[in-house]
Amino acid sequence: MTLWEKIWTYFACVVFVILGFGSIWIAIDSYIFDNACYAIIGELNNSYIHERKHFLSSYSVSYNFNYDGKIYTGYQTIYNKPLIKETIVYFMPDEPQKNRLDRGRIFESLVTSFVMFFFLAQTIKRLRANQGI
Question: What is residue 14's three-state secondary structure?
Fold first, then answer.
């Protein structure tokens, strides 16, 4: 294994660790949000931005909801074309500015974390096989 291969391999290890623990943090944050959030009916604003990359379409939308006599606005990218104006908004009751249109990011985050740690283990295995550690 050349010096550059070792450097890139160590760099990959660092990236896998950061992404793995970052995904765990997102899963924990999602768990806390999902268990403490309230749901309310909100309204999508009339305009949205449609983006298409390869085979995936996304829509950047803004929405409003009224809670405790105040109107809050949120922004999010969704993957289904907004067809109706009403939507469910999930928000933290003590901080309504923390809101979103979906819940349940826990599974995806944990899968991402698992994949990153799997790649980390494979990279370390490769390093050991080449006596890089």
Answer: helix
Q: Are 90 and 35 in contact (CB under 8 A)?
A: no
Q: For 34-45, write each residue's pLDDT tens digit.
A: 999 999 999 998
Q: Can you name the residues that pair with 50 across neighbouring β-strands? A: 59
- What pLDDT is attached to residue 12? 92
**Identity at 131, one-letter amino acid code:** Q
- Tell me: the pLDDT tens digits for 49-61? 889 888 888 999 9
Alpha-carbon gap, residue 66 to 68, rounded angstroms: 7
Q: How far is CA 72 from CA 40, 42, 94, 128, in A?
A: 12, 10, 13, 54
In angstroms, the CA 21 to CA 114 distance is: 10
